[in-house]
Amino acid sequence: MLIVVILLLAAGTYGFRLGGALLRERVVLPAPVARLLPLAAVALLAALVATSALTEGHGFVGVARPAGVLAGAVAAWRRLPFILVVVIAAGTAALLRFAGVN
Length: 102
What we know:
Radius of gyration: 20 Å
Strand content: under 5%
Keywords: Membrane, Transmembrane, Transmembrane helix
Protein name: Branched-chain amino acid transporter
Mean pLDDT: 93
Pfam family, one: AzlD
Order of helices and strands: HHEEHH
InterPro entries: Brnchd-chn_aa_trnsp_AzlD
Strand order of the largest sheet: 1-2
């Protein structure tokens, strides 16, 4: 059953991608929609980051993980190398947990 579900999801994903390529010239979005479409992707990504950084299960995750995400965001904003951003984020969360801050 799991294989069937995976194959259906793969076919659906392929269909969406193929449809986008085939309909590119036929579908014309209105100017306001085309202007706001990149912002929708940013909003969706921000909501995903906020949800995974702040919650686990049905409750608040604590302070350590959001502090690590914030430290990583500041490091990325300062344009540090990606590996350093990851180390700073993980290190911040680990140090806070080691200090007893949940």
